[in-house]
Design goal:
This protein has 225 residues and is of the alpha+beta class. It has a domain of 118 residues: Lambda Exonuclease, Chain A (Alpha-Beta Complex). The strands form two sheets. Strands 3-4-5-6-7 form a five-stranded mixed sheet, sandwiched between helices. The radius of gyration is 23 Å and the shape is globular.
Length: 225
């Protein structure tokens, strides 16, 4: 039986006990950051709203019936992380001497669509070039083989409104700061579909009854009009 004493049993994993948190500070910060997410201004289509496939939501936004919603502190922190990311990327582009403009407004009157392009850079291959910046978690980042449909659509609007042949959606992973970037070519046919949807919403007299968006679509916060 030589050597049996040398076999070591695995150590039992010791469960760590979570220490008491500073609830005063947690609550103080949450109370400070909690706010209101105001409904979009009526009479204008915004690229972020057009990225939602739900016509009911888009109708509510355009016709001024979308309601203000609570802005939880966690979501406020997510928005602020997005702003910090934009500031960091602006410094990169500026350091590379390719930043031409940040938060460039774009607008057309018929139908009324208004938005802001995150960045215009001087691209090596394409000249003046829009870049739409997004952050995404590790799971979503790993699945990315092309831009998410709502992000591609948003950039497509900027390409057509600003008359750019090509643009880029740039993603940063929230968990480990890896990046992916995808080129998006200007598509006139896709743009015509976007315009047709806007005209359809403008012509609708009654609110669509059914939500055709995701389970979290904000139109569910509004009842009948």
């Amino acid at each position: 039986m030589a050597g049996i004493k040398q076999i070591k049993r695995p150590n039992k994993r010791v469960r760590e006990v979570e220490e008491p948190q500073d609830t005063w500070l947690n609550e103080l910060l949450d109370d400070y950051l909690a706010g209101t997410m105001h409904a979009p201004r009526a009479g204008v289509f915004y690229p972020s709203a057009l990225g939602n496939p739900c016509d009911r939501y888009l109708w509510l936004c355009y016709h001024g019936h979308m309601v203000d919603q609570p802005l939880p502190p966690t979501l406020q922190r997510i928005f602020q992380c997005g702003s910090s990311l934009e500031d960091r990327v602006a410094k990169w582009f500026d350091g590379l001497k390719i930043l031409l403009q940040q938060e460039k407004p774009v607008r057309i009157e018929v139908p009324p669509i208004s938005g802001r392009i995150d960045f215009i850079i001087k691209h090596y291959d394409y000249g003046n070039h829009p870049v739409e910046l997004k952050s995404i978690n590790k799971t979503g980042f790993g699945k990315l083989k092309k831009p998410k449909p709502e992000h591609s659509l948003q950039l497509q609007m900027y390409l057509n409104m600003g008359d750019y042949p090509m643009g880029t959606v740039l993603y940063e992973c929230k968990d480990d700061q890896r990046i992916k970037s995808f080129l998006v070519e200007r598509d006139v046919v896709e743009w015509e579909k976007i315009l047709a949807r806007c005209f359809k919403i403008q012509d609708m007299i009654a609110l669509p009854e059914q939500c055709t968006g995701a389970s979290w679509c904000a139109c569910k916060q509004v009842g009948t009009i």
